[in-house]
Specification:
3 helices
Length: 108
């Protein structure tokens, strides 16, 4: 009987640990970013962006997408970022983190 109790306890502890692992994986991204993932965005990479924001690039339905997580991690701003001279700061990151890796996978 003690052996059965021990086995049951092992199953419950293992299940609890697996549940925690799944929760940790599910919460890998801030909620604002996760809301875009839930809508079908696939993230290819992240980078440090101006203003203390974190930039994300990826794709949705085959189209490149870029967005920026605000410093408080509560909001995302979707679209290209321009500097004061009007230079698109997002385009190079999409090339580097979305298109270049795709090109490498098509070589073989």
């Amino acid at each position: 009987m003690e052996r059965i109790k021990s086995s049951i306890r092992y199953v419950f502890v293992t299940a609890a640990l697996i549940g925690q692992s799944v929760t940790a994986i599910a919460s890998e991204y801030p909620a604002a970013v996760q809301s875009l993932i839930d809508r079908g965005v696939t993230i290819s990479g992240t980078f440090d962006a101006p203003g203390g924001m974190t930039g994300y690039v990826g794709s949705m339905e085959g189209w490149p997408v870029a967005f920026y997580l605000t410093m408080d991690s509560q909001h995302v701003v979707v679209g290209p970022m321009l500097n004061s001279d009007g230079v698109n700061l997002t385009e190079s990151k999409i090339q580097e983190l979305v298109f270049e890796p795709e090109k490498d996978t098509h070589l073989y």
